[in-house]
């Protein structure tokens, strides 16, 4: 969203509504649905069930700031990791004199859970006499940096906001309507059988078609780098 006029709840929620209203209709070719193998083994699930347990969707925001920038929303069950994060990937710099594109692009990651953190994944020079690069990070892990501060759970904050009468973290009616207007046509297409869920293995990243969709819209997956939350040990 754009910067609100002030920090008043209504001004913040006004901007949230504006950006939702700027989202273009979702294209079927920019949607991947998945269903993990074994889902239909449950006796309560019909053999012809098309219920998705995974979805990857590309959203396009039609405004001056975000025109041409794909927003990839991805969620699923029975995946190889359980996490919630926002990942901003930067484009390649023209004229890469270090020849390090194969290592992956720089990224700014906001880890919501588990292990709340913000870190910048970037290419750095390896220590030593040789000119070699590798992926590393600049890390702000909340549990390490703020050891004497109790970080509240999400619902703790909402309950406190309710007591204070602060509504900025709650969904207003027009925001809810704008959000449903984005996804309702897609849900109707799923119910009508126009979109089919593809199979994927439990414990994987999800359907390979999802990675192919991300690559198609410009996202480059980093291979070999894994962020490890820092510890006191």
TrEMBL record:
Gene3D superfamilies: Dihydrodipicolinate Reductase, domain 2
Signal peptide residues on this chain, from the entry's feature table: none
Keyword hit for Phosphoprotein: no
GO cellular component term, pick one: cytosol
Keywords noted in UniProt: Carbohydrate metabolism, NADP
GO biological process, one term: glucose metabolic process
Residue span(s) of domain Glucose-6-phosphate dehydrogenase C-terminal: 1-218
GO molecular function: glucose-6-phosphate dehydrogenase activity; NADP binding
Alphabetized Pfam families for the sequence: G6PD_C (PF02781)
SUPFAM superfamilies associated with the record: Glyceraldehyde-3-phosphate dehydrogenase-like, C-terminal domain (SSF55347)
PANTHER family documented for this protein: GLUCOSE-6-PHOSPHATE 1-DEHYDROGENASE (PTHR23429:SF8), GLUCOSE-6-PHOSPHATE 1-DEHYDROGENASE G6PD (PTHR23429)
Protein name: Glucose-6-phosphate dehydrogenase C-terminal domain-containing protein
Species in which this protein is naturally found: Aegilops tauschii subsp. strangulata (Goatgrass)
């Amino acid at each position: 969203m754009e910067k609100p006029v002030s920090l008043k709840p209504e001004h913040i929620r006004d901007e949230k509504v504006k950006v939702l209203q700027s989202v273009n209709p979702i294209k079927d070719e920019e949607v991947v649905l998945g269903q993990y193998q074994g889902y239909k083994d449950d006796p309560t699930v019909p053999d012809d069930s098309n219920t998705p347990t995974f979805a990857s969707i590309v959203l396009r925001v039609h405004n001056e700031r975000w025109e041409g920038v794909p927003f990839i929303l991805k969620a699923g069950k029975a995946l190889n990791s359980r996490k919630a994060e926002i990942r901003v990937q930067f484009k390649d710099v023209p004229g890469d004199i270090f020849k390090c594109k194969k290592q992956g692009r720089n990224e700014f990651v906001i880890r919501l859970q588990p292990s709340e953190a913000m870190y910048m994944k970037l290419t750095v020079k390896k220590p030593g006499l040789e000119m070699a690069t590798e992926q590393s990070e600049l890390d702000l892990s909340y549990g390490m940096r703020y050891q004497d501060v109790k970080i509240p759970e999400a619902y703790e904050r909402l309950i406190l906001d309710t007591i204070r009468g602060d509504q900025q973290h709650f969904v207003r009616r027009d925001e809810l309507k704008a959000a449903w207007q984005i996804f309702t046509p897609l849900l109707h297409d799923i119910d009508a059988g126009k979109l089919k869920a593809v199979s994927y293995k439990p414990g994987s990243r999800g359907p390979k078609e999802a990675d192919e969709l991300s690559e198609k819209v410009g996202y480059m997956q980093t291979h070999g780098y894994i962020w490890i939350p820092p510890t006191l040990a």
